[in-house]
Design a protein that fits this description.
The complex is a heterodimer. Chain A has 27 helices and four strands. Chain A has a domain of 223 residues. The radius of gyration of chain A is 24 Å and the shape is globular. Chain A starts with 5 loop residues before the first helix and ends with a helix. In chain A, 55% of the residues lie in helices and 2% in strands. By secondary structure, chain A is mainly α. In chain A, 52% of the residues are buried. In chain A, the strands form two sheets. Chain A has a two-stranded antiparallel ribbon with strand order 1-2. Chain A has a two-stranded antiparallel ribbon with strand order 3-4. Chain B is α/β, with parallel strands linked by helices. In chain B, the strands form two sheets. In chain B, strands 1, 2, 6, 7, 8, 9, 10, 11, 12 and 13 form a ten-stranded mixed beta sheet that branches. Chain B has a three-stranded antiparallel beta sheet with strand order 3-5-4. In chain B, helix 11 packs across helix 12. The longest helix of chain B has 20 residues. Chain B is globular, with a radius of gyration of 21 Å. The two termini of chain B are 27 Å apart. Classes of the chains: A mainly alpha, B alpha/beta. At the A-B interface, helix 13, helix 21, helix 22, helix 25 and helix 26 of A face helix 4, helix 6 and helix 8 of B.
Chain lengths: 489, 376
């Protein structure tokens, strides 16, 4: 019998729906390779366009553009739109509370993007591509800061569009995006000899935050041994990259008047100012991207995310060599990663982060992501009926990481009683409350799991018996989702 | 003030110290103090928190980040006006400040720096356990972290439970006791957390303000058999832009820190007399202000200490100076006191761990010759 894809779909995707026929492991890998080779096809999701007109009517133009890809069914779309409208009406009534209106406007894109992410991951068959997307969102962490909230969803979409191209293009677009420029304080960084300073339009000078993190987190990492001089060079190159027009906040630009003119040096290479200005940043990024240190870092991070907390150095080396041979063309690296994944045994030894685990939990039981609209302000006791607050509670909400190195990748960091408590509580919602119902849940709550279904999770003998013996039947769902075998994949 | 001019502030005011009655049932407990750790991620600006008054160079290298109207400490340094409660503790004789201190790290990376401040090793990523975790292991103590993840600083074989407010209500589901004990039974990693996860299950609260968290730590530490070590984290000190002086971003963060300390002080009640609060941050910030009225990643910072275990308030420092040639790479305050010696002396006094054990186990590779001289 052909090996089933159940294990790999959990390791490098979002699992499978009970009730759907299993596909073979080979088929899964073929699909994954195809989604990389024809990467454009998955970005525009044609099957969904007609369905979400209803949601779109409730949105501003920018949001409409971003969310034209949402894949919810039409009924769900109408429900969601109605809730958004209700919330907006309430906010308008509270005009005397400008904070509330402001928060609603600023946060709405974030709620929507959390919903869209869940929806894409659970409801499309672009498993591996979507996992890569989540990986990069964390690799290039941006959190809400310095009024960048409305840019974050746009930033996430930009990554999705560019993650199959070259690393240099991706890094260039990341560091020159408004969300990042604002988050890491580059927006006001001004060259001391720039026109803006000479003409006294501003008293601002340079700020090295983004420059340092570009070297440390996105490219070569401290192992490279770069010095303060290199950080200074990078800082000068980044001066002038800023939001020029706040009405069009997504579009950051290079504004030469704020740029430090002249030649700047990074890692022993000199970069001349160019007339268009963008060339200097592009050049330095291109050079950083093809360095061994960057190759090793990207490869290590990918291996750690998809293979093991402590990746086999051989795997890292293998991927790193592919990266170097292809000069950072990411599609080639992903294909190399799939090759490695295909050689693995099926041990369940990679702990799933809360986001992937939550999507897999919902998908397994065919439960839709909850469509509630958060109340504004969103503090106070509220019911967890929306994706962003659930992810926040579980501990991994993109756009809210405490620091620019993002969320943890290893099991040890996810094992605390409070994190585990949230997972137990979330598991216990499935099938138990109106927002988390499906036919599959109902059948399990009435009759328990059938053994063919349970077999698909590759549980240990002990877990398998424990889950099937759990009573009432609803606790079988909790036992499965919290079992060591489902928490890992 | 000259470099190498060792400053020892006199006690701000002498207070009679009376030993609070021990609330702990076991005899050994009464010898062990409580340590409450506040992890300040992002790099606190020691020069703004505790501004040098005699080293006038600061006015040459800072303008918008200068703090006017500092609170009185010892004549050589002024305390940021946001730290009012800390100032009260200072004047009661129960506070200390160590200045120009750090982890012998000049790499200016948050993540390497945080790994060092929590791991306590000689190089970044050299250890997978935390220095307080190792100290707890030596003394057989347990701790409580008011955080979602367990911070590296308390990782070891010692028990650290975490507690963090949640919006998740307990679902209508009863027998999770049997369920978790059963399903995690054979899993080494998960079964370690069964008991504490079941404890988390009954709790429901959604206030995650750090001062509330400090209150929870204080309450639990005051219970008989409660944890002896508590942790709370506060991120946000990474003030690259518009840092502010007396008011503004950095001032707001310090105000939070002050609230955390005062909340712990008031809710720990008599346990306060047997406690010490310590702050830990990965590095200080550039001595010179940057171009956007902020400060970038630097080297040395300051440590705040408060609690009844301290009997005389002092600023302890070997001041390295702020002139260009005195600064590291002409920009950062040099580290003249190893933070590991400071924390070593704190746990030596609080947990009764011998300096030899601290040298061997808690902070390998350090000398541990420092006596903070605040213990009375």
């Amino acid at each position: 019998m052909e090996k089933s894809a159940d294990w790999i779909s959990r390791r490098a995707g979002f699992g499978f729906r009970l009730g759907d026929d299993p596909i073979s492991e080979n088929q899964w890998f073929t699909n994954a390779r195809k989604s990389i080779e024809n990467n454009k096809s998955y970005i525009s999701n044609n099957r969904i366009k007609p369905l979400l007109k209803s949601i779109k009517r409730g949105l501003s133009d920018e949001h409409r553009k971003i969310y034209s890809g949402i894949t919810l069914n039409q009924t769900a779309g109408i429900v969601y739109r109605k809730q958004l409208e209700k919330e907006e009406k309430q906010a308008l009534k509270d005009q005397e509370d400008p904070d509330r209106v402001f928060t609603l406007k600023a946060r709405r894109p974030l709620w929507l993007s959390a919903l869209r992410r869940a929806d894409l991951c659970i409801n499309t068959n672009q498993d591996f591509a979507n996992r890569l997307w989540l990986f990069w969102l964390n690799y290039f962490t941006v959190s809400e800061a310095n009024n960048n909230g409305t840019c974050i969803p746009h930033f996430h979409e930009m990554i999705r569009k560019n993650m199959f191209g070259s690393m240099s293009d991706l890094v260039f677009k990341v560091v020159s995006h408004s969300a990042m420029l604002l988050y890491l304080d580059n927006n006001n960084s001004t060259g001391d000899k720039s026109k803006a300073r000479k003409q006294k339009w501003t008293t601002d000078g340079t700020n090295e935050n983004l420059a340092r993190e570009t070297l440390e987190l996105f490219t070569v990492t401290p192992i490279n041994g770069y010095t303060q001089e290199d950080v200074n060079g990078m800082t000068n190159i980044l001066t002038g990259w800023r939001v020029k027009d706040w009405d069009n906040v997504y579009k950051a630009q290079f504004v030469e008047d704020y740029h430090q003119p002249g030649t700047h040096e990074v890692l022993g290479k000199k970069y001349k100012s160019s007339k268009t200005g963008t060339r200097q940043l592009k050049d330095v990024v291109e050079d950083l991207i093809v360095l061994e240190d960057t190759a090793r870092h990207v490869s290590f991070r990918l291996c750690q995310h998809f293979i093991s907390d402590e990746p086999n150095p051989k795997h890292v080396q293998q991927l790193s060599a592919i990266y170097m041979n292809h000069k950072g063309q990411l599609a080639a690296v992903y294909l190399g990663l799939l090759d490695i994944l295909q050689t693995l045994d099926h041990k369940q030894d990679k702990f799933l982060n809360p986001e992937v685990w939550a999507y897999q939990s919902l998908k397994t039981f065919n439960v839709s992501p909850p469509l509630g609209v958060p109340k504004v302000p969103s503090y106070g006791r509220f019911k967890l009926k929306n994706m962003d607050s659930i992810l926040r509670e579980l501990g991994l909400m993109h756009g809210e990481a405490a620091q620019p190195n993002g969320w943890a990748e290893v099991e040890e960091d996810w094992l605390s009683n409070e994190y585990l408590d949230r997972r137990v509580k979330f598991s216990a919602l499935i099938g138990a409350t109106s927002n988390y119902k499906s036919d599959i849940c109902t059948s399990i709550i009435q009759n328990g799991f059938n053994s063919t279904d349970l077999d698909r999770f590759n549980l240990s003998q002990y877990s398998q018996t424990f889950v099937s013996d759990s009573r009432p039947f609803q606790s079988q769902i909790v036992a499965l989702l919290c079992s060591p075998d489902f928490l890992r994949s | 003030m000259n470099r190498r001019d060792f400053i020892k502030a006199s006690a701000a005011s002498a207070v009679a110290y009376t030993m609070g009655h021990s609330i702990f049932s076991s005899a050994s407990d009464s010898n062990i103090g409580n340590v409450f750790v506040i992890l300040l991620r992002g790099g606190m600006d020691g020069l703004a928190a505790v501004q040098p008054l005699q080293d006038k160079k600061i006015y040459d290298i800072r303008s918008s980040c200068i703090v006017e109207n500092t609170l009185k400490l010892d004549g050589n340094f002024g305390l940021h006006p946001s730290m009012k409660n800390f100032s009260d503790r200072w004047h009661a004789g129960n506070a200390g400040i160590v200045h120009a201190t750090g982890f012998d790290y000049y790499g200016r990376s948050h993540f390497e720096g945080q790994n060092l401040m929590e791991g306590g090793g000689g190089a970044p990523y050299a250890t997978s356990t935390g220095w307080l975790g190792r100290a707890m292991e030596v003394s057989n103590l347990s701790s409580l972290a008011l955080t979602l993840p367990t911070p590296l600083i308390c990782k070891s074989t010692a028990i650290t439970e975490s507690l963090y407010p949640t919006n998740f209500k307990n679902p209508i589901f009863t027998d999770n006791d049997t369920l978790l004990k059963g399903i995690w039974k054979d899993d080494m990693a998960l079964s370690k957390h069964t008991k504490s996860t079941l404890k988390s299950y009954g709790r429901y609260d959604n206030n995650n303000e750090p001062e509330w968290l400090a209150r929870e730590v204080a309450k639990q530490m005051s219970q008989v058999g409660g944890p002896k070590v508590g942790f709370v984290e506060y991120s946000g000190f990474d003030t690259h832009s518009r840092q502010g002086g007396e008011h503004g971003n950095h001032a707001r963060h310090l105000e939070k820190l002050d609230k955390i300390i005062s909340s712990f002080a008031s809710y720990s009640k008599e346990v306060w007399n047997n406690s010490i609060v310590i702050t830990v941050t990965e590095f200080g910030r550039t001595a010179k202000e940057n171009g956007t009225e902020g400060t970038d990643h630097g080297a040395a910072s300051a440590i705040f200490l408060a609690g009844g275990l301290i009997k005389s308030s002092r600023v302890i420092t070997d001041w390295p100076g702020l002139s260009k040639k005195e600064l590291f790479e002409q920009r950062d305050l040099r580290q003249t006191t190893d933070a590991r010696d400071v924390y070593g002396d704190v746990i030596h006094h609080a947990f009764n761990i011998s300096k030899q054990n601290i040298k061997d186990i808690v902070f390998p590779g350090t000398q541990q010759k420092l006596n903070l001289d605040i213990w009375g």
